[in-house]
Design brief:
The chain folds into 3 domains: about 5-75 and about 115-310, Pnp Oxidase, Chain A, CATH 2.30.110.10; about 320-450, UbiD C-terminal domain-like (3-Layer(aba) Sandwich), CATH 3.40.1670.10; about 475-560, UbiD C-terminal domain-like, CATH 3.40.1670. Helix content is about 25%, strand content about 20%. It has 17 helices and 30 strands. Helix 4 (about 80-90) runs parallel beside helix 10. The longest helix has 20 residues, at about 320-340. It is globular. The N and C termini lie far apart (about 60 Å).
C-alpha cells in the first residue's frame, strides 16, 4: 500500500476508525503536546488538529500503534518489514552457492527497479511557492515547558556529499530561530554532520532541503539505521513496492519526493558561527541541554494545496518513536547476524531503555565463552556502539517476555565472572556519563553456562526471595522487594541531603541480606513509583554510568545507583538535566477543555506521575550551593 501524501494516509486512518479529528482551535504552544502525550500513553488514536491558528492542520501520533505503523510501511505488522529485509540480506550474503545466488537475480533486479527516479518538471509538493519564506506560517510546536523554543520534530533532512554527490536522508530536530532561520541539530556521529564537515573543507555553502510529510514510509526510512552509502529512498521504494519519484528543488540542486506535503529549501554556511540551540525535551525522557549547532537559512518554502503539517513529541517512554523502533530492530539484526555475529537469533530494544540504553540479544550458544564473544563484537558494531547495557541470553528465552528475561538473568548470571564493564562512545544525548558522548558500558552474559564455564566456587545463584527488615540510613525513604515476582531485587528510594551525599556510604550500610551474592539493589530518587518496573528500568538505564554507578557490596551482591547525580559527591562535572513533563497550568487547561477535543473518555495526564522527580531549576537542575 502506498499513500500520496498525508491527506491520503489520513483518509485511510479515518476509514479504519483510527483517527480523532479535533475541530476546535488548539494551541501548538504546549497544549497539543499535552493532549498527544495522554493519547499515546493510553493507546489512543492518531490526532488531526484541524484548527491550529494557521492554514495547515497538524497530524500527530500517526504511527503510535502496531496497525498504524504497519500501514505506514505497507505491511501487516511492524516486524514484517524487518523480516523481509533480513531475508533480502540473507539472499545476497556471501555464504551462498553460485546457483543459489543466480536464483536470486530476479529478486535483486526487482529491487534495483525500486531505486528512486528523477522526473522533469515540478511535483505536487511545489503547487504553492513562497519565495519570501516565513516559517511562522507553519504550526510548529513548543512541546515542553523548558524547551528553548518551537521545534520541527519530524523533518526529513536532505543533504549530499560535495565530492561524491552521494545523497543522505536523516532526521534532525530543528529549532525555529527566526522567520527564515533554524538550528540544525545533527550529532557528530550522523551522516549529516559528516557532510557538513566535508562542505566546510570546500569553503562553500552546503545545500540542505527539508521535507515534511508525503508518504509516511519516508518518515520511517529517514530514521532507519541504513549503511551510509545506501539511499534511504531505495528502502522506501522496497517497502512501498513502488519507486519514489523525485523532483529538483527550486533554489538548490537537491532532489526530493514529488509527493511531499511541505518543502523547506535552504543552505547551511559552514563559515558562520554556530548557534546556541536547545534545550529540548528529548526521547531519553530528560532534557537535552543547550549546545552549539549550525544554522539553516531558508530560501524558499513550497507545499501542496492540501498540505498537512506532521509532528511528534518525544519524552518519557512510551512515545510514538517506540513503534518506529520495532521494525528497526530487525534492520539492526540483519547486518549483525550475517556479517558480524551469525549466532544471533533475535534482538530487542525495550521501550523503557529508550533505544540504545538497553539491548537484549538471544543467541544459538554452542561453545563456552560465546556469550562474552558476542558482547565484545556488539559493542563495536555500527550503531550498536552507542549501547550502554547489552544482555545476551539463550535462544529459548522470549525477549519480549520481560519476566522470563529477568528469571534467566538471575538464574544464570554470576556477578564475579559474567559481567563485562568497559568504556566507549555513547549517544550524545546520554546525560549520565562524566564525559560528553563517551562513558561506561556493561555487557551481561545471561546464557546458560556450559560445563567448561562452571566451577564449584562460581556456580549460578538460584532465585530466592529477599527479606529486608530495614536499612538504617537517614537518606533512605523506602524499600521495596519484588517478592510477588520471586526476583531477588531490592528497590531503595533515596532523598539526598542538600549538601550532597556519597552513595558508597549507603552501599556499605546495607544489611547482610541485601549484600548477599545474587541480590541486586537499585537506588532511585524519592518520589519514584517503585511499583512501575518500566519506570525503574528507564531510570536505571538512563541515570547510571556502569563504570561509575555499579558497586559490589562486601557480600557479593550488586548495587546500582540510578539516582540523579545533581546532589552527589564527588560533584558531577556536567549539568544534570531535568525530567521532561508538562506544567500544571497546561495540564489544568487540557483538563478543562477535554470534552471540546472529541478525544473520547477523559485521560489523566501522565506528567502527574513524574512531578515528584522534577527538581528545582529549568531544563537543567539547579546546582546546590
Amino acid at each position: 500500500m502506498t499513500f500520496s501524501g498525508l491527506s491520503d494516509f489520513i483518509s485511510h486512518l479515518d476509514s479504519c476508525g483510527d483517527l480523532c479529528r479535533v475541530k476546535c482551535r488548539v494551541d501548538p504552544h504546549l497544549e497539543i503536546a499535552e493532549i498527544a502525550d495522554r493519547m499515546v500513553k493510553s493507546g489512543g488514536k492518531a490526532l488531526l488538529f484541524e484548527d491550529t491558528g494557521t492554514a495547515f492542520p497538524l497530524l500527530i501520533n500517526a504511527l503510535a500503534s502496531d496497525n498504524r505503523m504497519a500501514s505506514a510501511i505497507g505491511r501487516v505488522s511492524p516486524e514484517d518489514a524487518g523480516n523481509e529485509i533480513l531475508s533480502l540480506f540473507d539472499a545476497i550474503s556471501g555464504d551462498k552457492s553460485i546457483l543459489s545466488k543466480i536464483s536470486q537475480l530476479p529478486r535483486l533486479y526487482r529491487l534495483i527497479k525500486l531505486a528512486p527516479r528523477k522526473k522533469r518538471g515540478r511535483g505536487i509538493c511545489q503547487e504553492v511557492v513562497i519565495s519570501k519564506p516565513d516559517l511562522s506560517i507553519l504550526p510548529v510546536m513548543k512541546c515542553w515547558p523548558h524547551d528553548g523554543g518551537k521545534f520541527i520534530t519530524l523533518p526529513l533532512v536532505h543533504t549530499k556529499h560535495p565530492e561524491t554527490g552521494k545523497p543522505n536522508l536523516g532526521m534532525y530536530r530543528m529549532q525555529i530561530m527566526g522567520p527564515a532561520l533554524t538550528g540544525m541539530h545533527w550529532h557528530r556521529h550522523k551522516t549529516g554532520a559528516r557532510h557538513f564537515q566535508a562542505w566546510k573543507e570546500t569553503g562553500r555553502r552546503m545545500p540542505v532541503t527539508v521535507t515534511l510529510g508525503g508518504d509516511p514510509v519516508y518518515t520511517y526510512s529517514a530514521t532507519a539505521p541504513m549503511p551510509e552509502n545506501i539511499d534511504e529512498y531505495m528502502l522506501a521504494g522496497f517497502l512501498r513496492g513502488r519507486r519514489v519519484e523525485m523532483v529538483k528543488c527550486i533554489t538548490n540542486d537537491l532532489w526530493i519526493p514529488a509527493d511531499s506535503d511541505i518543502v523547506i529549501e535552504g543552505y547551511v554556511d559552514p563559515s558562520e558561527e554556530l548557534l546556541l540551540e536547545g534545550p529540548f525535551g528529548d526521547h531519553t525522557g530528560f532534557y537535552s541541554l543547550a549546545d552549539y549547532y549550525p544554522g539553516f537559512h531558508v530560501t524558499c518554502i513550497t507545499h501542496r494545496r492540501n498540505a498537512v503539517y506532521p509532528s511528534t513529541i518525544v519524552g518519557v517512554p512510551p512515545m510514538e518513536d517506540a513503534w518506529i523502533g520495532r521494525a528497526t530492530e530487525k534492520i539492526f539484526l540483519a547486518p549483525l547476524k550475517l556479517a558480524i555475529t551469525p549466532e544471533i537469533m533475535d534482538l530487542h530494544m525495550p521501550v523503557s531503555g529508550v533505544a540504545h540504553n538497553l539491548v537484549l540479544v538471544s543467541i544459538d550458544k554452542t561453545y563456552p565463552g560465546q556469550g562474552m564473544k558476542v558482547l565484545n563484537a556488539l559493542f563495536g558494531a555500527g550503531q550498536m556502539m552507542f549501547s550502554k547495557y547489552i544482555v545476551v541470553l539463550n535462544s529459548g528465552v522470549p525477549l519480549h517476555d520481560y519476566g522470563k528475561v529477568a528469571e534467566a538473568l538471575f538464574e544464570n548470571v554470576r556477578f564475579g565472572t559474567d559481567l563485562m564493564v568497559t568504556r566507549g562512545p555513547l549517544d550524545v544525548l546520554d546525560h549520565s556519563s562524566d564525559t560528553f558522548s563517551m562513558g561506561g558500558k556493561m555487557g551481561i552474559d545471561a546464557t546458560v553456562k556450559l560445563n567448561e564455564e562452571k566451577n564449584l566456587e562460581l556456580s549460578a545463584v538460584p532465585l530466592r526471595l529477599v527479606a529486608v527488615e530495614g536499612i538504617r540510613n537517614e537518606v533512605v525513604t523506602g524499600i521495596k522487594t519484588l517478592s510477588d515476582l520471586t526476583l531477588p531485587l531490592v528497590i531503595i528510594t533515596v532523598r539526598k541531603p542538600a549538601e550532597g551525599f556519597i552513595m558508597k556510604e549507603l552501599v556499605s550500610s546495607l544489611p547482610a541480606p541485601v549484600q548477599n551474592d545474587g541480590i541486586i539493589s537499585v537506588a532511585v530518587d524519592d518520589g519514584t513509583d517503585t511499583g512501575d518496573l518500566g519506570m525503574i528500568l528507564w531510570l536505571v538505564t538512563g541515570n547510571s554510568d556502569p563504570a561509575r554507578d555499579i558497586y559490589k557490596p562486601a557480600g557479593g551482591g550488586l548495587f546500582i545507583d540510578a539516582t540523579s547525580k545533581s546532589g552527589s559527591l564527588p560533584v558531577f562535572p556536567r549539568e544534570w538535566p531535568n525530567v521532561v513533563c508538562s506544567d500544571i497550568e497546561t495540564i489544568e487547561r487540557v483538563d478543562r477543555r477535554w470534552s471540546e477535543y472529541n478525544a473520547g473518555a477523559f485521560i489523566k495526564s501522565p506528567s502527574l506521575k513524574l512531578f515528584p522527580l522534577v527538581q528545582p531549576g529549568g531544563a537543567a537542575v539547579k546546582k546546590p550551593k
